[in-house]
Design brief:
Structural class: alpha/beta
Bound molecules: 3-isopropylmalic acid, magnesium ion
Number of helices: 12
Shape: globular
Strand order of the largest sheet: 2-1-3-12-11-4-5-10-8-9
Oligomer: single chain
Distance between the termini: 17 Å
Helix content: 40-55%
Order of helices and strands: EHEHHEHEHEEEHEHEHEHEEHHH
């Protein structure tokens, strides 16, 4: 198989975690006789520094010419006070919108070896395996009006949570389809007791459910969902929710696994998919060989599975990660009494050695 991948390392630990993922990709290429061409592109702070904008047009067109995009992380304190529109995060939002990636899949699975790393009790975590389907190109992230303006002599900030029925319908379909490949249970999360946009969300998701009688549908308010994720996370199979709620709940779900450094994601819905770890650019540990590359390596596995249909290759990567963790190796974020802590490069090497 021959594929071209646009690689956007981005900022902070982005470069380090991407480096390990590309070494894994290189090994898979050799072992399985594929050919992957990777082309590096700029976005986020790195792009701001070089070109003055967070998403150069060239990056978007490179992405569109390739078969998939692999992204590290964008953002950092250097650009924190940039004006709206010129923040590194605008690069990420521009990629998601520009590539039409409305469906963000964020699986959170508990690794047996990491049961004691999480702040939650092992008995609560045992068997947790859930998938958050986050709407990614709508809602309050993109709604208009937005901005900061004056009302008399007072500053006011405005953002708008807005969803068209068609946007809700297409993400609901993705979630129901995902549930059919899993345990046939879908929880739709909203704030319908307060927000009209959530009332529409609930109505449309219920309408779509008529076409999926085999999938059990539940509705949950977001505050309750946040609580249930900690109280009894095993009850969840697939969760579908809006852009903002999905952002928040996926960080919470990440902590079930012990560290946000473990959570991969796939953004789908357009002609090509984009794959990125759920974590940020962690500027405090950047360049110190401390970052956990597992979320990025798992995101690469998702790319092989969803964009290229290479599920065996994806499984070999996921299995190698399980082996390394079972053998007791830990990155700093997964520190555990009596277990050797290794750096970004070494955990990458250990995973690569276990690919077959
Ligand atoms: C995420 C991140 C992004 C988001 C930021 C960096 C814009 O938190 O992917 O979850 O809010 O979507
Ligand atoms: Mg987030």
């Amino acid at each position: 198989m021959h594929k071209q991948i646009t690689v956007i390392p981005g900022d902070g630990i982005g470069k380090e975690v991407i480096e390990q993922a590309l070494l894994v990709l290189g090994r898979i290429e050799k072992l399985r006789g594929h050919s992957f061409k990777t082309v590096e592109a700029l976005a986020g702070g790195a792009a701001l520094d070089k070109t003055g904008v967070p998403l150069p047009g060239e990056t978007l067109s490179l992405c569109r010419q390739s078969d998939a995009v692999l992204l590290g992380a964008l953002g950092g304190p250097k650009w924190e006070n940039n004006p709206p529109g010129l923040k590194p995060e605008n690069g990420l939002l521009g990629l998601r919108a520009g590539l039409g990636l409305f469906a963000n899949l964020r699986p959170a699975r508990i690794f047996r070896a990491l049961m004691n790393v999480s702040t939650l009790k092992a008995e609560v975590l045992l068997g947790v395996d859930l998938l958050i389907v986050r709407e990614l190109t709508g809602g309050i992230y993109f709604g208009k009006p937005r901005g900061i303006s004056k009302e008399g002599d007072e500053d006011i900030g405005v953002n708008t949570e807005i969803y068209k029925a068609s946007e809700i319908r297409r993400i609901a379909v993705v979630a129901f389809e995902a549930a059919r490949k899993r345990r046939f249970k879908l929880t739709s999360v909203d704030k319908a007791n307060v927000l009209e946009v959530s009332q529409l969300w609930r109505r449309i998701v219920s309408e779509v459910s008529a076409s999926y009688p085999d999938v059990e549908l539940h509705h949950l308010y977001v505050d309750n969902c946040a609580m249930q994720l900690i109280a009894n996370p095993r009850q969840f199979d697939v969760i579908v929710t809006s852009n903002l709620f999905g952002d928040i709940l996926s960080d919470e779900a990440a902590m079930l696994t012990g560290s946000i450094g473990m959570l991969p994601s796939a953004s789908l819905g357009g002609a090509i998919g984009m794959y990125e770890p759920v974590h940020g650019s962690a500027p405090d540990i950047a360049g110190k060989d401390l970052a956990n590359p597992i979320a990025t390596i798992s995101s690469l596995a998702m790319m092989l599975r969803y964009s290229f249909g290479l599920s065996q290759e994806a499984e070999t990567i996921e299995q190698a990660i399980v082996s390394v963790l079972d053998e007791g190796y830990r990155t700093a974020d997964l520190k555990e009494e009596g277990k050797p802590v290794v750096g970004t490069r070494q955990i990458g090497e250990l995973i690569i050695e276990r690919l077959h």
